[in-house]
Amino acid sequence: QVQLVESGGGLVQPGGSLRLSCAASGFAFSMNTMAWVRRAPGKGLEWVSSISVTKFATYADSVKGRFTISRDNAKNSVYLQMNSLKPEDTAVYYCAMGSRATALTGNRGQGTQVTVSS
Question: What confidence category does residue 1 fall into, taking pLDDT thresholds of 50, 70 and 90?
C-alpha cells in the first residue's frame, strides 16, 4: 500500500531554513506527481507545491521564491527546502500525491510539524 513518511520538521526562528524529506513506498514513485500540503493551526488544508514526473515545479503564491521542491527518483524521495521562513508558515506539513487540483484529496503521510517562532 502507499506509504509516505515525512521528516525534518522542527522549531526555527523567523528568517531561518528547514529541509523536509519524504520517503515513499508502495507505488510507482517515478510515475507520479508529488506534492507538499500543509495545515496551519485552526485552518484548512492548503496546497504548497507539486513536482511532476518531468521535475516541473509549481508553487503557491505564498511560498513562491522561498520554497523549493525537488525529487530523487532513485531514492523514492521528495524534498521541500524552505528558506526565509515566516511565522505564518507554521503548520503541519504533509507529503502528498498529485497536482494542485488533486493533492488535497489523495494519499498523504502522517505529517511533520514546522514551527516558526522567536
Answer: very high
The total of other beta-carbon atoms located within 10 Å of residue 117's CB is: 10
DSSP class per residue in 55-110:
--EEE-TTTTTTEEEEEEGGGTEEEEEE-S--GGG-EEEEEEES-TTTTTTS-B--
- 39-64 pLDDT, tens digit per residue, is 999 999 999 999 999 999 999 999 99
Distance from the first to the final alpha carbon of the chain = 40
Percent of the chain with pLDDT over 90: 98
56: left (phi over 0), alpha (psi -120 to 50) or beta: beta
